[in-house]
Amino acid sequence: MRVNPDELSLKDKVVFINRVAKVVKGGKRFNFCALVVVGDGHGWVGIGKGKAAEVPVAISKAVEQAKKHLVHVPLKGGTIPHEVHGLFGAEHVLLKPAVDGTGIIAGGAVRAVVELVGAHNIIAKTLGRGNPFNTVRATLDGLTQLRSLDDVIRFRRQAVVEGRERATV
Questions:
Q1: What's the pLDDT at 148?
Q2: Residue 29 CB burial class (10 angstroms; 0-12, 13-18, ≥19)
Q3: 7-53 pLDDT per residue, tens
Q4: How many Å apart are CA 143 and CA 147, to the nearest integer?
Q5: Are 50 and 59 in contact (CB under 8 A)?
Q6: What is the DSSP letter of 4?
Q7: Taking Cα atoms as reference points, which of 139, 153, 132, 118 lies closest to residue 40?
Q8: Residue pLDDT, tens place only, 96-127
């Protein structure tokens, strides 16, 4: 499902800025790498990474990349429909739905993604080293595994219809 980012009222949040140094003949040359999350608070979220010689340029590149890679996450009453495990690299993120009034119980990188996706009650646990780049990717992996009740019903009906066709043939 494609969406035009200009139609959504997207907010962005800088998760992490990394300064890297390249040693050259005259000394060190510094560059910056920015990790940014964008979302509309109603299920659309994207992550982006930008690199440049200056921080504002790196952030703007990351925002543009994040807008190009938006995904939709099904939400159910301010939380997620079911528990999921997201994996990326050596990072493992556990996301669990929570009852109203719980709030967002999550660490830094996971909190940024969950806030911008629009979940208000969620419990998250990061299992791994805590590298922000991998943590954000693992969180997004977990969120993309979520399925709404309508999606599951539609998929199961289709599987049943296909199964009957095979049985009659």
A1: 84
A2: exposed
A3: 778 999 999 999 999 999 999 999 999 999 999 989 999 999 999 99
A4: 9
A5: yes
A6: -
A7: 118
A8: 999 999 999 998 899 999 999 999 999 999 99
**What does residue 46 show for φ and ψ, rounded to 5 degrees?**
-150, 155
Measured from the Cβ of residue 80, the count of other Cβ atoms closer than 10 Å reads: 26
Going by C-alpha positions, the residue among 36, 40, 123 that lies closest to residue 80 is 123
DSSP 8-state code for residue 57:
H
Q: What is the DSSP string of 73-122?
A: ---BTTB-SS-EEEEETTEEEEEEE--TT--EE--HHHHHHHHHHT-SSE
CA distance 29 to 15: 23
Residue type, 44: W
Give the up-direction half-sphere exposure of residue 166: CA atoms within 13 A in the CB hemisphere.
6
Q: How far apart are CA 123 and CA 109, in angstroms?
A: 13
Mapped onto helix, strand or coil, the DSSP state of residue 159 is helix
Could you give the angle at the alpha carbon of 41 between the alpha carbons of 36 and 45, nearest 5°? 45
Length of the chain: 169
